């Protein structure tokens, strides 16, 4: 063998070793809680369909721009919530489909995603003597409008969530879980004035016109300090409120028109049946290719083994969500990898029958088979791109998963057929492991 082939063999073995290291043990690396990212159909979770009320949008903003802004804010909320590989897609002109793999509490997901998160502060009403007003039950009565103060430009402004830069969950030794607020410079300037005139009074905090907290202002909060919200929150409630506030208010109200729970047990059953089908098909394939192509079949089996290990490593390393159609795409790409090997082997056998040496037959077989492999795979890539685009346009996410997985599988199959199989054959021929043509499945 030439030095180039030796280097290629070392590269393939090193790549295989790295891939094996990344996926073994399989139960922990791929099938464990932090393993492969499974789609909604395999992992279970929640699916929500929202309808946006575009009549409530800002008249100066187009419907498309308003929907894009809503989708972006939903994406931020879901990402902060910790959902792995959510699917958020616009359907038609005013609907949004949200798929949340692994989320079992659908009511909590609805509360998190659908809230408009309009934050404002309201001062307590005062009577004629300047004393805070109370209702018949002794509860404070608050103003109907957000608290106002003079901005840096001399204009009176309402203190709302639009001045909020960041909100995050924290814990106070006396109040328990709280939500800390970080204002921009203008918001901090307004907040300082409002807290100064409300020392020893209650200042109500409203979210979507519902009071969530009304703490007593104990001291003026300067523009260099951070405010915080208390409300006897649990840690989870404080975290979700911080997510809502940080992601900003939704540009239009959303209404849930369809909600579904997908049982994870259905996914487990689908995976089990798919694995059984794949195992039976793979076993039959290996038996046939070994019986018909003999040594060439053995080389193909090694090449397919490398293909399988590398594909699992790719799925484990890159954020590719595996769905049931994706599993079908893996099996299909495996068949296409075998098809490439068959084309190469048949060309080799033709060259051997024509009297070429083993080394020359290997090179000629690959060179003659390459145009057919290239063209067939390019047409598959084009089909995958079209399916991926159509799946995203019409909300057919299973189609997108199939297209992406098939694209990756076919691309890898080209590598294993042209590089791995060729290197193994050069090693077998160069090392003169077998010189009998019958061992190559050639009958002369």
Brief characterization of the structure:
By secondary structure, this protein is of the alpha+beta class. It folds into 3 domains: 3-39 and 263-440, Multidrug efflux transporter AcrB transmembrane domain (Multidrug efflux transporter AcrB transmembrane fold); 45-115 and 254-262, Alpha-Beta Plaits (2-Layer Sandwich), CATH 3.30.70; 119-247, Gyrase A, domain 2 (2-Layer Sandwich), CATH 3.30.1360.200.
Any idea what the CATH superfamily of the largest domain is called? Multidrug efflux transporter AcrB transmembrane domain
Helix content: 40-55%
CATH architecture of the largest domain: Up-down Bundle
Would you identify the regions where 5 or more consecutive residues have pLDDT less than 50?
Answer: none
CATH level 1 class label of the largest domain: Mainly Alpha
Indicate the overall shape: elongated
Q: Name the structural class.
A: alpha+beta
Radius of gyration: 32 Å
Largest sheet: 4 strands, antiparallel
Q: How many helical stretches?
A: 12
What is the CATH topology descriptor of the largest domain?
Answer: Multidrug efflux transporter AcrB transmembrane fold
Strand order of the largest sheet: 2-3-1-12
Question: Can you walk me through this structure?
Answer:
With 444 residues, this protein is an alpha+beta fold. It folds into 3 domains: 215 residues, Up-down Bundle (Multidrug efflux transporter AcrB transmembrane fold); 80 residues, Alpha-Beta Plaits (2-Layer Sandwich); 129 residues, Gyrase A, domain 2, CATH 3.30.1360.200. 53% of the residues lie in helices and 16% in strands. The strands form 4 sheets. Strands 2-3-1-12 form a 4-stranded antiparallel beta sheet. It starts with a helix and ends in a 14-residue tail after the last helix.
């Amino acid at each position: 063998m030439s030095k180039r082939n030796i280097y290629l063999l070392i590269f393939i073995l090193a790549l295989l070793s790295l891939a094996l290291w990344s996926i073994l043990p399989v139960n922990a690396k791929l099938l464990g809680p932090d393993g492969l990212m499974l789609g909604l159909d395999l992992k279970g979770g929640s699916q929500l369909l929202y309808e946006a009320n575009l009549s409530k949008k800002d008249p100066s903003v187009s419907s498309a721009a308003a929907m894009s802004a809503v989708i972006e804010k939903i994406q931020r909320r879901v990402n902060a919530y910790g959902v792995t590989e959510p699917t958020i897609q616009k359907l038609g002109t005013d609907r949004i489909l949200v798929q949340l793999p692994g989320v079992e509490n659908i009511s909590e997901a609805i509360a998190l995603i659908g809230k408009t998160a309009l934050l404002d502060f309201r001062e307590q009403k005062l009577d004629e003597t300047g004393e805070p007003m109370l209702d018949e039950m002794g509860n404070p009565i608050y103003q109907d409008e957000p608290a106002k103060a003079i901005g840096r430009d001399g204009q009176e402004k309402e203190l709302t969530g639009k001045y909020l830069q960041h909100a995050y969950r924290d814990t106070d030794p006396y109040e328990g879980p709280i939500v800390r607020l970080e204002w921009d410079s203008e918001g901090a300037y307004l907040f300082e004035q409002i807290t100064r005139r409300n020392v020893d009074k209650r200042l109500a905090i409203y979210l979507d016109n519902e009071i969530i907290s009304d703490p007593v202002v104990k001291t003026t909060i300067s523009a260099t300090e951070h405010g915080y919200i208390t409300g006897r929150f649990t840690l989870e409630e404080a975290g979700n409120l911080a997510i809502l506030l940080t992601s900003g208010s939704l540009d239009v109200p959303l209404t849930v028109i369809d909600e579904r729970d997908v049982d994870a047990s259905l996914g487990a059953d689908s995976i089990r049946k798919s694995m059984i089908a794949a195992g039976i098909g793979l076993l039959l394939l290996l038996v046939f290719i070994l019986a018909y192509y003999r040594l060439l079949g053995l080389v193909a089996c090694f090449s397919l083994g490398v293909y399988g290990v590398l594909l699992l490593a790719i799925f484990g390393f890159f954020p590719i969500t595996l769905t049931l159609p994706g599993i079908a795409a893996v099996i299909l790409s495996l068949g296409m990898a075998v098809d490439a090997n068959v084309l190469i082997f048949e060309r080799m056998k033709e060259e051997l029958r024509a009297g070429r040496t083993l080394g020359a037959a290997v090179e000629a077989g690959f060179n003659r088979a390459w145009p057919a492999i290239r063209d067939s795979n390019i047409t598959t890539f084009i089909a995958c791109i079209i399916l991926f685009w159509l799946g995203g346009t019409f909300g057919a996410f299973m189609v997108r998963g199939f297209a992406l997985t098939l694209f990756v599988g076919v691309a890898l199959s080209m590598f294993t057929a042209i590089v791995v199989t060729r290197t193994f054959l050069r090693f077998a021929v160069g090392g003169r492991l077998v010189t009998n043509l019958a061992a190559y499945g050639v009958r002369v």
